[in-house]
Amino acid sequence: MLDRLKKEQGFTLIEVLAALLIVSITALAFTAYFSNAMTFAKTNQNKTIMSNLARNALVYMQKQDFERLEAYFDSSSATVVRAAEAEQPRRVGITPETFENCTASSSGACAFRDIFEGGNLEPVTAVLSPRVNGIAYRVVIEYQQDLNRAQNAGGALLLPISATVTTAADGAAGPGANAVTVEGYVNAQSIR
């Protein structure tokens, strides 16, 4: 019986070290894979949040007074969100700062505060400057005048707008979640 135990051979130290090396390399590859998967999932989560915030802003704007909103976009007091470029006209809209310092006697963009129900700016401020999961976002409503149709094609009944959501601080939502834009229309009261 002793002879049989002496003849049994186990793994040598080199074989054990080689096996550990192979297992370590495999584990390292899986770690990198799961790390990338977590980053991808976090980025998608933040893009989903930004998309939902943009949709929320569009729904909020669709409930506002159509005529006053149209008058605001056509006025010289409208906030410029994009300056005129070579072949692109200037773009106007509503930013979180548009109605930030309004008082009852303010002029300019503040004269249009009655776009919102009762001139109450708290809800629009909450919609345009939301905070979700500790991250501050910034929503910009942009009037897309170049998408406006002719009056005989229903253009007088629709205001094409878009809502673009970014983070208030660059990179706060993680890599790849820079901005999300959702487009929509504000319908005239006659077709609501």
TrEMBL record:
<dbReference type="InterPro" id="IPR010052">
    <property type="entry name" value="T2SS_protein-GspI"/>
</dbReference>
<keyword id="KW-0488">Methylation</keyword>
<protein>
    <submittedName>
        <fullName>Prepilin-type N-terminal cleavage/methylation domain-containing protein</fullName>
    </submittedName>
</protein>
<keyword id="KW-0472">Membrane</keyword>
<keyword id="KW-0997">Cell inner membrane</keyword>
<dbReference type="Pfam" id="PF07963">
    <property type="entry name" value="N_methyl"/>
</dbReference>
<comment type="similarity">
    <text>Belongs to the GSP I family.</text>
</comment>
<dbReference type="InterPro" id="IPR012902">
    <property type="entry name" value="N_methyl_site"/>
</dbReference>
<feature type="transmembrane region" description="Helical">
    <location>
        <begin position="12"/>
        <end position="34"/>
    </location>
</feature>
<keyword id="KW-0812">Transmembrane</keyword>
<keyword id="KW-1133">Transmembrane helix</keyword>
<keyword id="KW-0178">Competence</keyword>
<keyword id="KW-1003">Cell membrane</keyword>
